[in-house]
Amino acid sequence: MRAQHGFTLIELLIAVSIFAVLATIAYGGLGAVLDTREHTEKVAHRLSQLQIALTIMQRDIEQATTRSVRDEFGDRKEAFIGSNQSGSYIELTSNGHANPLKRARSSLQRVAYHFSEGELTRSIWPVLDLPQEAIANKEVALSGLTDLNFRYLDSNRKWQQSWPPESTEEDIHPARPIAVEVVLEYKEWGEIKRLFRLVDSSQ
After folding, report:
1. Distance between the two ends of the chain, CA-based, in angstroms?
2. Percentage of the chain lying above the pLDDT 70 cut
3. Which of 46, 70, 141, 203 could link 122 by a cystine bridge, Cβ 3.0 to 4.6 Å?
4. Is 50 exceeded by the pLDDT of residue 149?
5. Which three-class secondary structure state does DSSP give residue 109?
6. Which domains does the chain have, with CATH numbers?
């Protein structure tokens, strides 16, 4: 009669130990893959938000018009306003208000971008000449920024830090700049620059 041979206790312990080591290695590798995937998805989402925000900003700025507006107190406001003091700020009248349903309304709208505490906010007013107690529709266009600045190219091909530029009485500037440079800064990506040239800037 042939003797039956099984595993000894030591052999079982060795097998279990090897399996445990392999399982630990496999789990660690899987965890690293999942972490990498999560990080990649977050970066892709932020890049998508950045692309969308810059596309909307490009449409707003490049379609800027010379149409000035009235504030809620009836005072005139320039067609194009820009400053880097107390948080970068730009406000303009844009002709980029899409109207795919062909409704009876103007294609012009008053738009503003304001950077403060790491967020870039986009504001839209319901009408150009504001009634009293008018409230803008605000939404966060971008977040996680460390800095943001605007620059404005005048008709003499000189960069200005504000618009309308600070000038003497002899200086004459158009209602809007020729181009606008936007410099966004992220901690992880550094500076991102975009240059928007206004449509029909000769007028």
Report:
1. 108
2. 83
3. 141
4. yes
5. strand
6. 59-197 (3.10.610.10)
Going from the C-alpha of 49 to that of each of 30, 44, 183, the distances in angstroms are: 29, 9, 16
pLDDT at 107: 81
The single residue listed with the structure tokens 């606008």 is 180
pLDDT digits (tens, 9 = 90+) for 24-34: 777 777 677 76
How open is the CA angle 188-194-196, to the nearest 5 degrees? 160
- DSSP string for 26-39: HHHHHHHHHHHHHH
Name every residue whose Cβ is closer than 8 Å to that of residue 140 and which is 6 or more positions away in sequence. Answer: 119, 120, 121, 122
Structure tokens at 109: 């709208």
Per-residue model confidence as pLDDT tens digits over 177-201: 999 999 999 988 899 999 999 987 4
Distances (CA, A) of 180 to 1, 7, 105, 158: 95, 78, 28, 11
Phi and psi at 3, nearest 5°, equal -75, 140
The pLDDT confidence band at residue 203, using thresholds 50, 70 and 90, is: very low
Q: Are 182 and 165 in contact (CB under 8 A)?
A: no
- Rg value, the chain, Cα: 29
Tokens of 108: 């012009």
Parallel, antiparallel, or unpaired for β 119-124 and 109-116? antiparallel
Q: How many C-beta neighbours within 10 Å does residue 73 have?
A: 7
| Tokens read off for 173 | 């500037």
